[in-house]
């Protein structure tokens, strides 16, 4: 952040790395960023240590000092009501995984049609959709509950899966990706060859949109995995809970039975591991493709 | 899961040769796009439009004889006019929850977006090192759902667990607990800041990356320092991203629910009506009064729209409608 810093002449990071003319590092700006990084990593480090403690150590030993009971805690958590915790993990994978795949498919198809077809009512549909982006989604949860209750679908997997398939923001992003990555000539050529519209979408447009669709998938995956209120409202049977609702319930019981706290913390640690791994592997999709959506938005 | 959507087979077929031109035209101009949009439109109508209409209908009704059934006890529903709205807007608990969330938003949004912008600009600066590590670390909390981050921070706030209280005790000081009634808003702000700063940073950083480097070259020739470049060139160029992140942050703020709900077992100071949405939840499911819950929902939704539109008007509608 020093005022004496200069920008390279023409090309940025990449080129200068090749020619080896890196600028003098700034300790201040690097330091601020590292502080931010430490702040963000701190609870993760803490839960690594905390999940390895037994019930008395949790409140008596230094908070960041690890102990030796991690495996015991995991065994105990696994034994808790015949492995209910792992059922929650599986449910979460099901809700977020299947929900995000179907949602991405619907968003891709709708976005593709809105970008590449010209038909009466198109602008109206798109405007209504944009309003949908602004609708506070959580506010829909109570009427959705009442409607699904009338259909006899509350307290089922469907009640959590179905409402989260429609994503106005996903369609909005898919429209941008389709407009940018699927050339009209290619569609015309395929039509002249006699290809059906759905064939064109599935076999020609989808592969072209694929990097963008991965981003939509990630968005939806995180949105569903993060959505607490909907399953909290819809589900009564704790065998159907996703991990978030399950751990919330366990924490509530912990208020009267503090022995459960060690289980809650072991569960919190185990539940963030898969997501963190997924993030590290798919990180480049966030970087590359948010640009296409966010910059133009 | 693909069974929820149907392939629009027949409509997509190429028209037979003998078909009249107008029919063929109608088929390709209207039937084909609409049948392909059908899954999206149906889901939108069933899970977004219908619930909104249903909430509106409920908000103008009330129970005549207090029954037990939530949905099926419709025989006792009567038209209530604006009663639910009046009682909702004059409910001191509702006003208090709105004020709490306003304070929460006023603290959280500038901090979150400010840090996100600072980090994004630092990442974009060529003099910063360890950028990959920091970017990954700061973005990582986005992968942690609000319930779990609230749970982790909730424990960290407990004076018996917190390392800050530990350090203070070593120095003979006694820090106040962040879970105290006066401070719990800050406790929730910190959780939301932790979870949100990385995502907003990534959105801004990707916008910065898309700026052509010729602009910086010109700025440098004109003698711009790096801070001047950041303030006068980079921030104005990524303004649309800033508008978008601000808008989404405001909408999310109004809907805060998971964080205070998860903190409640650890913090007695959090009431069941801490945020407007918690109040809606309590009315609908604890008090079985879906009608006032519906009215309160509509008030929150209307406020969200109003704030969104005012905000977009103020920033000259730069965020939406320019994607072509």
Sum up the overall morphology of chain A in one term.
globular
CATH superfamily of the largest domain in chain A: MetI-like
User: What is the annotated CATH architecture of the domain at 91-314 in chain B?
Assistant: Orthogonal Bundle
Mean pLDDT of chain B: 83
Question: How many separate domains of chain A?
Answer: 2
Assembly type of the chains comes to heterodimer
Helical stretch count of chain A?
14
Query: Percent helix among the residues of chain A?
Result: over 70%
Elements of chain B, N to C (H/E)? HHEEHHHHHHHHHHHH
* Biggest sheet overview of chain A: none
* End-to-end Cα distance of chain A: 29 Å
CATH topology of the domain at 91-314 in chain B: MetI-like fold
Chains forming the largest contact: A-B, 128 and 127 residues
Unreliable stretches of chain B (pLDDT < 50, length at least 5) are 1-16, 319-324
User: Which CATH architecture of the largest domain in chain A?
Assistant: Orthogonal Bundle
